[in-house]
Design a protein that fits this description.
Elements: E1 6-9, H1 13-24, E2 29-32, E3 45-47, E4 50-52, H2 64-74, E5 78-82, E6 85-89, E7 92-94, H3 100-124, H4 133-141, H5 143-158, H6 167-173, H7 179-186, E8 201-205, H8 209-222, E9 225-228, E10 232-239, E11 242-250, E12 253-258, E13 261-264, H9 268-274, E14 275-276, H10 281-289, E15 292-302, E16 312-315, E17 324-327, H11 328-331, E18 342-350, H12 361-375, E19 383-396, H13 402-413, E20 419-421, H14 433-447, H15 461-465
Bound molecules: flavin-adenine dinucleotide (FAD).
């Protein structure tokens, strides 16, 4: 084991927060990042003067410590932006939360009555037992509403039937703030408490989320953190329940780095599969059973200003393959060159063995252009160029039995006193960046001797978007 050298696997928000927090205490560390760019899912990719997110990233938190870090790091570069996101379905926009007039106009009288009848039916004859996402949603909102507003988008994102998605996931992500409740309220039915309003403004770095984490890394590097890009961790070595070092691949070479502590934000199942000596078979099987969904963003660039006011739009129409569209210039005008340009990120969700993942950039751009033609938001002659960003393992999949696998893995990993699992895929959590950063802060405090648990961070994202009452 190294005398004293904490090693951080992954240079996304969680890993960078660890290096930054350690540097503030004059503790040196080494960050190993397999990508050529820092920031993980929060990096900002640049192309000919245009900037894009991996999905739009709102900076919103109820955690004062994280908010203070953000404001301190970016100071005057941290903008407050208005939020607008709508749902696009059968050629119509639906506000979210829905207003009665908008819901009725969008759905029409016939569909609205069907929604009401199917809701009443679900209250009289609920599905029992409630196992899947479909059961959970249709029991609360009725089958018709589920079909219109939940099924298509959810299946685009997860690539599996809503019958196979766990009801836990719905309960955790949808909770009180539900589109379904909003629609039922708008139509004059539904029960329970009032629908919560959403936060109408959020923070955003002037030059995209990457700016936040690039600035944090610069500060950490000035105070003792060593950042190694293109360093892919391929092995995590342990002796007598202590991690003693990691092996990385960089530019075709294998290098071993001894460590005193290991913070891992690489995918939890990869960590398990890379432990040397190997984990017991049951733990390896649990690791192989956890799956992630990947994300392709096709960015189309236009010589025309953004035609819509939204930051992003959910596309529920099944004839369009993209699940969501990001209008970057509405996030920050500095995301596009000045002088009447705009860009749109078309988001496609897939597995890495899907044919979509392996299409060439040209083929993917063609699909996005077809989707655009279907939506009609721009004229063909305004199109300039396009570029593609692939992010492998963007969404941990909450499939029906994922909790059991997670338990097996966590039980086994808990024996390693100097190993800290942090972050979104490091903990296999569908979380936001403030949660990821918080896991990093707690892990550092634990390393320094406090009785705190990085797994205890609450990651109920939708809940966190509700306005405080
Ligand atoms: C489409 C989308 C939109 C989102 N929008 C928001 C939002 O609006 N607001 C919000 O707060 N959150 C949002 N999130 C969530 C946010 O992106 C994550 O919570 C956050 O980025 C997770 O940070 P992390 O450091 O845990 O993981 P990551 O950002 O995934 O970073 C992990 C890092 O580890 C590296 N790595 C992986 N394997 C290895 C290896 N073997 N060796 C070395 N390095 C490795 C990766 O390259 C990566 O850089 C969004 C996520 C997605 C997918």
């Amino acid at each position: 084991m190294a005398d004293f050298l904490p090693v951080v696997i992954g240079g996304g928000p969680a890993g960078i927060t660890v290096a930054h927090a350690l540097s503030e205490k004059q503790v040196p560390s080494v960050v190993l990042e397999k990508d050529k760019q820092i920031g993980g899912l929060c990096k900002t990719v640049q192309y000919n003067g245009f900037r894009c997110d991996i999905g739009g990233h709102r900076f919103f938190t109820k955690n004062k410590q994280i908010q203070n870090i953000w404001e301190n790091i970016l100071d005057g570069e941290f903008m407050t932006r208005p939020r607008l996101s709508r749902i696009y379905y059968q050629g119509k926009f639906f506000n979210y939360p829905l207003r009665a007039g908008n819901a009725l106009a969008g759905l029409g009288l016939v569909n609205s009555s069907r929604v009401i009848f199917s809701y009443l039916k679900s209250q009289l004859f609920p599905v029992n037992p409630e196992i899947s996402f479909e059961d959970w949603v249709s029991n609360r909102f009725g089958q018709k509403l589920y079909n219109i507003f939940f099924k298509t988008y959810t299946e685009k994102v997860w690539g599996i039937s809503c019958k196979e998605l766990s009801a836990d996931w719905a309960a955790q992500r949808i909770r009180n703030l539900s589109l379904g409740r909003a629609v039922l309220h708008a139509l004059g039915v539904g029960k329970g408490a009032k629908v919560a309003s959403l936060i109408e403004r959020f923070h955003y770095p002037r030059l995209g989320p990457g700016q936040m984490f690039e600035t944090m890394v610069e500060r950490a590097a000035r105070h003792g953190a060593e950042i190694r890009m293109n360093h892919n961790t391929v092995e995590v070595q342990h002796v007598k329940n202590q991690v003693t070092g990691v092996k990385v691949q960089t530019q075709g070479n294998g290098i071993s780095i001894p460590c005193s502590h290991c913070f891992s934000s690489m995918p939890l199942n990869e960590l398990v599969l890379k432990m040397q000596p190997l984990a017991p078979d049951a733990v390896l099987d649990a690791a192989r059973a956890l799956r992630y969904r990947s994300l392709i963003t096709v960015n189309l660039l236009f010589k025309k200003t953004t035609p819509l006011p939204d930051n992003w739009i959910y596309i529920h129409s099944p004839e369009v393959q993209a699940g969501r569209l990001q209008f970057y210039a509405n996030w920050s005008p500095y995301m596009v060159p000045s002088g009447g340009f705009s860009s749109v990120g078309f988001e496609y969700f897939c597995f890495e063995d899907d044919s979509l993942w392996n299409l060439s950039d040209g083929e993917l751009i063609k699909i996005a252009l077809q989707d655009l033609a279907c939506l009609g938001f721009y004229h063909e002659q305004d199109y300039l160029d396009g570029f593609v960003v692939r992010y492998s393992k963007a969404y941990p999949m909450y499939e029906n039995n994922y909790m059991e696998h997670l338990k097996v893995i966590r039980d086994w990993l808990s024996r390693f006193g100097n190993l800290y699992c942090i972050g979104r895929y490091g903990q296999f959590r569908y979380n936001n960046m403030d949660h990821s950063m918080m896991t990093g802060l707690l892990a550092v405090r634990r390393m320094l001797g406090e009785e705190v648990d990085p797994w205890s961070v609450n990651a109920e994202g939708e809940y966190l978007e509700e306005k405080a009452t």
